[in-house]
Amino acid sequence: MQSVGVRRNPVQVFGDLPRMAQPRPFTPAVTRARDSALEHGMAEARQLATILCENRPGPYPTIVLGGFVPDSTEQVFLMRRMLFRSGSVYYLNYSRRGFSLDLLCAQLDDLVEELTVLRGQRPVVLTVSFGGGLLVEWLRRSRAGLRRTDLGGAILVSPVACLADVLDAAEAKPSTLTARALKPYLGPPETLGSSVVERSQAIFARMFNAGSQNREILRSLMRGDEIDGFLARVIVSIKGLDYAGASERVRALCQFVEPAACSAPDLAVLVEAPVLVLYAESEETVLTGNSPTRAALNRDLARLFPQGVCRLVTGGISPVQHASLIFHYRQFLPHVSEFYKGLRARKVRVAA
Fold it and tell me: What is the count of structural domains for the chain?
């Protein structure tokens, strides 16, 4: 894994000051896979992810799959202006009242088909933490079903692609806050209830608030009136997650197939498109020391993603944390921006 520090380019880092996001509900024209999942009882309507869109011209629209919490719209809020240079941004915000891995994969099938077949575009899927596992699972299922995955590229930020990435079965007591939040959901059903959800909500809110204490970072990137509204939206997305929503997201995490199993000869390549994997310098606050996904990507990156590169994100006053696209925006931005520039240059070369 290559460690690349932050490039001191003040225009690139400070030139993308955000303004209030205005994503609009997106009504897909292609709903075949989604409708089939619902009609065959594979999922319920309450589990549908909401798709929002900010329309911009460009050949490489971005589909955002966020982490466990908060919503996708908040997780990439500071990167929007940079993403707009390549095309529209589609946010998949998971339902707070439920979650279905089958349905999410079906919605992704439909959205990718609409963008590639109907619009002639090549979407980039940008994933954060848990969202990286969703993408790997979707790619694995697509390959197994011999379905095409015509992506322009993919970015996996601090990917969590199996339960063992965040919960070490050998530990008698979870050593990270994330593991403490998730472990109660794995116990007997009779032990689960509103108190478990409230406890996990409190843990995730505490983790977020720990970063938000350093408001100087946000002040350098956002107007004063934006900061309070933005922080409030994040907390609402965490506190609004009900029992079914939380427990079904954990259940989906338990369904993920470890990346090592994706390296079987018949599934050696997950996607041919360019892929960027970003790990933070301080992943141990969330990931286990023996994370199977990280081990598989270090060992088999070229097999899983032939055009994949893996970078270690470092720099800043404080260590870069797991999937910290908000409070370590400056450190992540150059890597993501460089990836999109490479795609746009690649399209020009192909057209020539």
Answer: 1
DSSP string, 173-210: S--SHHHHHHGGGGS-GGG-SHHHHHHHHHHHHHHHHH
pLDDT grade for 1, boundaries at 50, 70 and 90: low
Cα distances (angstroms) measured from residue 34 to each of 50, 82, 94, 267, 320: 12, 30, 14, 25, 37
Q: What is the residue range of 252's domain?
A: 2-351
Give which of 342, 268, 252, 258 is closest to 301, Cα–Cα: 268
Q: What is the DSSP letter of 257?
A: P
3-state secondary structure of 316: coil
Task: Convert the pLDDT of each residue in 295-350 to its tens digit.
Answer: 999 999 999 999 999 999 998 778 999 999 988 999 999 999 999 999 999 865 44
pLDDT at residue 51 is higher than 50: yes
CATH of the domain at 187: 3.40.50.1820
DSSP state of 279: E
CB 33 within 8 A of CB 107: yes
DSSP 42: S
Q: What pTM does this model have?
A: 0.90
What whole-number distance in Å separates Cα of residue 173 and Cα of residue 70?
A: 26
> Which residues lie across from 157 on neighbouring strands?
128, 278
Euclidean distance between CA atoms 197 and 203, whole angstroms: 10
- Could you tell me how far CA 134 lies from the centroid of its own chain? 8
Q: What is the pLDDT of residue 114?
A: 97
- Non-local CB neighbours of 120 within 8 Å, separated by 6+ positions: none
Other Cβ atoms closer than 10 A to 11: 7
CB atoms within 10 A of CB 5: 12
Angle between helices 130-144 and 101-113 in degrees, nearest 10: 70
Q: Rounded to an integer, what is the distance from CA 153 to the centroid of its chain?
A: 14
Nearest 5°: the CA angle 177, 249, 60 is 100
Question: Given this model, what pLDDT does residue 342 score?
Answer: 96
